[in-house]
């Protein structure tokens, strides 16, 4: 019994020392991406995105690429530079170029832009108590053909809501993706609400008794939040 308590005390001491050491290790903030989404207008030759390194002394390697919405689907984009060294306090511009034929269509296509920041290491950093993490950010890239009808900033107002028992059905009659910032039924958040594809629909399980009020806000092209729209079903 004595041996058991002694081992437990030693283990507790080691755990406390490890936690104290972990708390005292500083972590770097990483790079800053100048947007939460990229809108690629098909009529343009490229889209751009700023990447900043706000650190005072940290250097990062930044790697970027585009994936299809389905990971098995090859994305017709190249990002330049695909890999570069980001110096402290500096800003760089990523240029995204569509490599396929200009799409003539009536709806957007969703891709994903990946930006990975890798802390550069040297012999001095290796000897310091510095926690270094590789951070991968993934943001939406919407490829927007020129022939889509309607104003993208107003597309969220066109959403149509209906109900089937405890299911709230959301239909999007426009050619634009609508990304929810919030969706509320009788003032209660529908936490599962995410994005409704163009000419598509989404369903959410929501307890509903009698006629209910639906209020929603979306995220616009600039990452801002729209005014609230509402209806009843």
TrEMBL record:
UniProt keyword terms in alphabetical order: Chaperone, Fimbrium biogenesis, Periplasm, Signal
Annotated protein name in UniProt: Molecular chaperone
Superkingdom to which the source organism belongs: Bacteria
Family, per entry: Belongs to the periplasmic pilus chaperone family.
Subcellular location: Periplasm
Signal peptide as annotated in the record: 1-29
The keyword Chaperone appears for this protein: yes
Gene3D superfamilies: Immunoglobulins
Stretches of the chain forming a coiled coil according to its record: none
């Amino acid at each position: 019994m004595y041996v058991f308590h002694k081992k437990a005390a030693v283990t507790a001491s080691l755990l406390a020392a490890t936690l104290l050491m972990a708390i005292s290790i500083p972590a770097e903030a990483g790079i800053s991406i100048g947007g939460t989404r990229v809108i690629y207008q098909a009529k343009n030759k490229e889209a751009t995105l700023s990447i900043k390194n706000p650190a005072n002394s940290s250097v990062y390697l930044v790697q970027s690429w585009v994936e299809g919405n389905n990971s098995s689907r090859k994305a017709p984009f190249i990002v330049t530079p695909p890999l570069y060294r980001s110096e402290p306090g500096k800003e760089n511009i990523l240029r995204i170029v569509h490599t396929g034929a200009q799409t003539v269509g009536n709806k957007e296509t969703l891709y994903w832009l990946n930006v990975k920041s890798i802390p550069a290491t040297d012999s001095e950093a290796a000897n310091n108590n510095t926690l270094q993490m590789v951070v991968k950010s993934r943001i939406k890239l919407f490829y927007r053909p020129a022939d889509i009808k309607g104003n993208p900033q107003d597309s969220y107002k066109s959403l149509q809501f209906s109900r089937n028992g405890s299911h709230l059905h959301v239909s999007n009659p426009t050619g634009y993706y609508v990304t929810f910032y919030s969706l509320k039924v009788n003032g209660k958040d529908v936490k599962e609400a995410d994005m409704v594809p163009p000419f598509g629909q989404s369903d959410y399980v929501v307890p509903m008794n009698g006629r209910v009020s639906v209020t929603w806000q979306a995220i616009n092209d600039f990452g801002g939040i729209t005014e609230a729209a509402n209806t009843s079903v």
